[in-house]
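Interim report, section 4.2 (structural modelling).
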Amino acid sequence: MRHRAEIVVTLKSGVLDIQGKAVFQSLQQLGYGELEDVRVGKVVHLLLDAPTPEKARELARGMCEDLLVNGLIEEYRISLEAAER
Amino acid sequence: MDFRTVGLTENEYKTILRELGRTPNETELRLFGVMWSEHCSYKSTRPLLRLFPIEGRAVVQGPGENAGVVDLGEGFGLAFKVESHNHPSAVEPYQGAATGVGGIIRDILAMGARPVASMDGLFFGDPELRKTKALRQGIVAGIGGYGNAVGVPTVGGKTVYDEAYTENPLVNAFCAGVVRLEDMVRSDTAQSGRLVVLLGAKTGRDGIAGAAFASVELAEDTSASRPQVQIGDPFAEKLLIECCLELLEKRLIDSMQDMGAAGIISSSSEIAAKSGVGMTLDLDRVPLREKGMTPWEIALSESQERMLLIVNPDRMEQVLQVAAKWALDCTVFGETTGDGRYVMKAGGAMVVDLPPAFIGGNAPIIHWPSREPRDLEERQRLEVEELSPPKDLGAVLRSLLEDPNLGSKAWISEQYDSMVQTNTVIGPGGPVSVLRVLRGDKSPVFVAFSMEADPWKCRTDPRGGGAETVARTLRSLSVCGAEPLGWTNCLNFPSPQDPEVFWEMRECVQGMADAARGLSCPVVSGNVSLYNETPQKKILPTPLVVTAGLLSDLDGFLPWSRWREGDHLFLAGMPNTALGASRYLLRTFGLLQGKILPFDAGAEQDFTARARRTAKERAARSARSLAGGGLAVALAKEAMESGIGARLDVQIPTRPDVFLFGEGGPRALYAVPPASLPLFRSIWRGSPLTELGVATGNILDVKRGFSLSLAELRDSWRR
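Predicted structure of the assembly:
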């Protein structure tokens, strides 16, 4: 059974986000005075073959811990859906 | 709140009670916990550091400021310092190394100097382990990522591998800057009635209590020790550099400090204490990145890319204009006062009220017990006769060239921008790095740097190893023709609470001091990093030294790896040396043992003087002072890089392996064109000099030794 996992990786709150800071300043310069804060993260899409959604989630979590996420400064969340065909 | 939870000892707490005449509140206690940590207070090492000579002809500013400064003539000076960032790099290699580079750059900037060159001393564990590879990759990328972006060239460094560093890698970041001496910044020039200003990044919970973190051993699971990791922002640092230099040039500020360990409290109390003024700071006015920060978190935050300025109120408007031009936050958050009190306010209430000099300078010195290691005799025992000489010395040499400690480090230095600012004359990869220093409209001068560490020699023979480390930098500089100006050091050791470690540290420092005195080269700055150990393993005693030397022009610079067909090859210095703690002994026999040659001030002085004369009078074409791997490795490097072999036929005075691979003492390999032979010989007359043979062909052939083609040598070297 195939599953599509979407992993959203963001910096933990409180960790300096220099990319977010640059985007924040640029948007402000464009006149978006309402803007209060920007945090930039990344999205990883995985296509997995696993017998159950639970197993797929477990696999995705393993990949996050091993490679995709730096647990010292980043956090992540996984959303899962069944993939067609 | 218990004093133990902030890491204070009972004796320290009693000292605080006695001085204050009251119980400190929680904020004050937390400030003491960090300011009196080993990292900030040097409480274990202050008596040892007094052993170093700190006075010399060229010294403008010795230890005690953000960096030392030596005179380069025409009103210009060179500010330089090396500092450890070991623990942060062990936990988060990329950001740890990056913020190490950023931190030392701000130390140099805080002297009013423009940072012009970085170097890094890296100590990694067993190179085959996955853990080492990951740490190494992250640390090297972090140095490049920050250094390349901030626009300060990385011009050299030193990389050491030993399993002792597997759990505890070391990152020692060095930076040098050029300062107009009349613009040099000091921290004792603040008067009362001035504004205290924060320039640069907003304050977050970065590295809260990182300085205290650096003063304890790493827990087994580093992911469990959780101070907030500091993230480096090199572009913000670049803006900070340009902004501060513009403020100085326009003479708009009275003093400044970088904010490193222990952030606001450390930088501001140091100025107050050294200038003898009081200070009142309003923490509510500090621009914050996060909500809900407590006063002690704000005072101790180690957010990067910030500077503290002391500004005359009349000039504040202009300071704000310059800061706005560089798009930096600039906020007045306090003032200097005449009442001698260091006060912090938050939420309308007074949260700190202390005598400023007491915060930073008064941590009681700890005299740790010291004991000669029980196994010292065993460490120093080496009967060369008991080692059966290897049959194939060529294979030994190839194996040494494959040793990651001696092999090519090009894969590291190629990741760094070594040429930005376009003043790099000699970049990474050689015995010294050379930089051009522009001095306004006057002629430029050239500065050479040599970075050295030999933890193996410091292990078997701490005093001798300490002396050898310092002497090696001075030999390399002298051989290339540079006049040594001064040196900086980083003392990396395990916990001083182990009496044997403390003994090793004292002996190393004594040896370093002996060499510095013997060669009249003073210490101008330095840093100590202790508690480099895990429950399983202690690092080797690791003093790292960087020495700066002056070349008035490049005519007097003698390069290396410039052999040409027909050049005569000489070994200058004693032909007899020692195998103790040599790379050969470790690599071939797996032994870390043996004493090394004792430091001989007379021989070193004689050697370095003749070496400088050789360079100045252009009596040789190529020269390399001998270090790891001894004569054989020096021959191989010269031959490979020159692209020419040599035929050597020499009466070997001892065992061939001792002659070829022994280390220590003042010695250099010279290549001399036939026309220069009389001059070269006259310079070295009366000093040990051995003619080795002639540069020729494409085979390095040593009679009764080995015969290897350049291709074979390169194959091992690049492996």
